[in-house]
Amino acid sequence: MTFFHTTKILFKLRFVALALLGLPFLSRTTLAETYQIQDFSDDYYAVIQTSADEDSEENTSINIIDAKTKQTLISQPTDIDIEYELSNSEAYQLGNKVSANIANRHYGEHSVLIYDDFNFDNKKDLALQDGRYGCYGGPSYQVYLKQGSRFVLSEGFTELAQGYCGFFGIDKDSKTLNTMTKSGAAWHQFKEFKVINNKLVAVRIIEEEYNSRSLLSITESKRVNGKMKVENYEMLPQYDDQNAAGTLPYIYTLIIDNGKKLVIDSQYKDGSEQLYYAFANKEDRIELLYEGQFDYDKTTKTLSFTNRPVLYKINNQGITVKLPNQTVLLKSQPNSVQGNLDEVTHFKNVRVR
């Protein structure tokens, strides 16, 4: 869509100020345009104002205006692509208004204005987009909290709307705010905040990173009695079965009757590809990881290893766990087996017989 086509469908006010220079017939022109934002409140309305001077430098602001007094309460400078916002308005069939109150996390559509209760005091606050300073060029916001009859810029809440992937999430049930950021495909960070005396307090931080086993190494920090308690563990990554033709990308996996999962896969270790065994609970958290010596019986198609003093035997029927005083069979769920144990024979830490 061209700029000139856009102006045909956009409600705007244009003001042209001409200032004569010393030479006849030569003038300087300042062009101002006003675009209305979608209705979001009975008490306030908002417009986007753009102006370009004789050097073609454009200045843009989002203005919040009191519906009764017509007084401008906030004039927030912003660096946005107005043509993009207008095409987005067409997609939402908003006619001549720019969209408001869209925040599809983490990389989805975001409006220039978000009107909601961010600090859980039953008063709606404002977030105004100031540019695209979020992760990977995503949107960023200045956040104003409602205090009495005013909207007051909040440094803490604004920081929560800068540098993360998308606008922060608002969980009204738990009264928490949450953020996500990432670095490449291998590292992600998730934070959860409580609002205490209008201050943001981190109550949970999770950092996850793929390791050499293609498992997720997790560092989880939780606030307990005023102090952050740190725990490290591993998890199975989540895969989209549809994108993997209905199978998981492991050498072998099965699910036992109680919903826990067994995974056999490989990693590059000590100069060669080696087998490992992972046993995870129903939430995919690893409960047992073994990377030592394995034995494979081709006749019975059974893989075994000893994690002293326990002997484990794995086949399509499930996992046989031999303890010093008893033997337990953890049966596999019907049709839960994926893969073939014959694929383990070529790994350096597998003895075949």
In words, what does this structure look like?
The chain has 353 residues and is mainly β. The protein has 3 domains: 3-167, no CATH class; 169-245; 250-352. It is built from 3 helices and 26 strands. The protein has helices at residues 3-9, 82-91, 155-160; strands at residues 14-20, 27-36, 44-52, 58-66, 72-77, 113-116, 125-131, 140-147, 150-153, 169-171, 176-183, 187-196, 199-210, 216-224, 227-235, 252-255, 261-269, 272-280, 286-290, 294-297, 302-307, 310-315, 318-322, 327-331, 338-339, 350-352. It has a 6-stranded antiparallel beta sheet. Strands 24-23-22-21-20-26 form a 6-stranded mixed beta sheet, with no helix packed on it. A 5-stranded antiparallel beta sheet has the order 1-2-3-4-5, with no helix packed on it. It is elongated and about 85 Å long. The N and C termini lie far apart (69 Å).
Could you outline the blueprint of secondary structure elements for this entry?
Layout: H1 3-9, E1 14-20, E2 27-36, E3 44-52, E4 58-66, E5 72-77, H2 82-91, E6 113-116, E7 125-131, E8 140-147, E9 150-153, H3 155-160, E10 169-171, E11 176-183, E12 187-196, E13 199-210, E14 216-224, E15 227-235, E16 252-255, E17 261-269, E18 272-280, E19 286-290, E20 294-297, E21 302-307, E22 310-315, E23 318-322, E24 327-331, E25 338-339, E26 350-352
Parallel strand pairs: 20-26
Antiparallel strand pairs: 1-2, 2-3, 3-4, 4-5, 6-7, 7-8, 8-9, 10-11, 11-12, 12-13, 13-14, 14-15, 16-17, 16-25, 17-18, 18-19, 20-21, 21-22, 22-23, 23-24
